[in-house]
Amino acid sequence: MRRNRNAKIVATLGPASSTEEIIRNLFVAGVDVFRLNFSHGSHGEHKERYDIVRRISQEFGRPIAILGDLQGPKLRVGKFAEGAIMLEPDAMFRLDLDSADGDARRVNLPHPEIFAALVRDATLLLDDGRLELRVEEHGPDFANTRVVVGGRLSDRKGVNVPGVVLPISPLTEKDRRDLQYALDLGVDWIALSFVQRPEDVLEARALIGDRALIMTKLEKPSAIDRLDEIVAVSDAIMVARGDLGVEMPPERVPILQRSIVRVSRREGKPVVVATQMLESMTASPVPTRAEASDVASAIFQGADAVMLSAESAAGKYPVEAVTIMDRIITQVEGDPQYRALLDADHQKASSTVADAVCAALGQMAHIVSAKTVITYTASGASALRAARQRPDAPILSLTPSPRTAQRLAVVWGVHSLRSTGAPDVITMTDLACRAALQEGFASVGDYVVIAAGVPFGQSGTTNLLRVAKVGPDGADDGGLASEPVRR
Prior knowledge:
This protein has 487 residues and is of the alpha/beta class. It contains 17 helices and 21 strands. Helix 5 (198-208) packs parallel to helix 7 and helix 10 crosses helix 12 (318-333).
């Protein structure tokens, strides 16, 4: 099964998409990556969905990526004696460590780390930013605040502290249990929530090792302040616009989205745009025109993937949401302006042999009108470098590693395929030509351009560029070849 688009679709599994029939329909409709959201559901439910996805992958012979998304710290107020209160503008309201039920004057905030980080005039946002408090006095176990924006506040509502780096790990005890379970299952990616600084990613990396790749969720203003550093230590990035929009003015979120996509592309890291993309489709079979434009904007910016959350996990129309997202992406990528924007935002290659080869890969494919560019890769690095250049020919990635094939399912333009190892250049070229023919990327007589590394089977050795012509039996039929680039 081949997708006729470059950008990928991530869909969250949940109560509305837990049966094998629905998950299969979601895959057929266009899903490339399935997300297990550990903020909801039991470990048993996640295992059932994981097993279904792997069965469907076997059934269709196509690698599918699975993303385990950790909840991260959830900062919340305690309970109220009456269940809820009304906060009036300009009233004083106290937050403290007293576990007694709250009232209109005070409530428990069981997070001493917040009090430790507060300064006078700091802002506290409650209930996804609907209420706003300003700190007038604080200590190690309390904060006296003035209500700036009032309203109804009920039990266990969330607390955000914009502009403050909190001295807490992004991994709670729950997250550590969920992480271990997700790794034991065999997920391909781990989405890391509540990242404030690059050290948070490195902390997770020490626990994960090479068992999965890390997709860092950018949802805190403090993370934006250190964007370049965080992208550098991450394997991929998610623009988590919901939480980001709570702590930042909404008018800044579209600008930040574009900046994050650009930095991620520059560094060759896949970037996913997420949250409320087709939100109305949780209850409606069609999206709003604004939502369709929102998805299109992310694709025009060059995002690797766009994500569905509640739309596919809990909505009434999960398959329809994937179908319309697939249609939007296909329409945008067929617009001549799409190619023009990608070319205008072309990323300069780094000064390495591997990046030089992959940059030339796209240029050579364009010159000889190659039908596909092919990367022969063990770790996936060659495919990532090729995708960074956003070539105008599709990328066929051949790898002997099933884990690499699955991980690459989130990457722009990459059609990943398991392949046997190649002992030499001639065998590798014939394998590539046959794969292009069998997968429908090329016909007899078409040119393909191949990037690989010599010696074969070693990661990080991309140093060979070859042009081949697909013969009647799928083997190389006399294409011109470059010499390997020697280090």
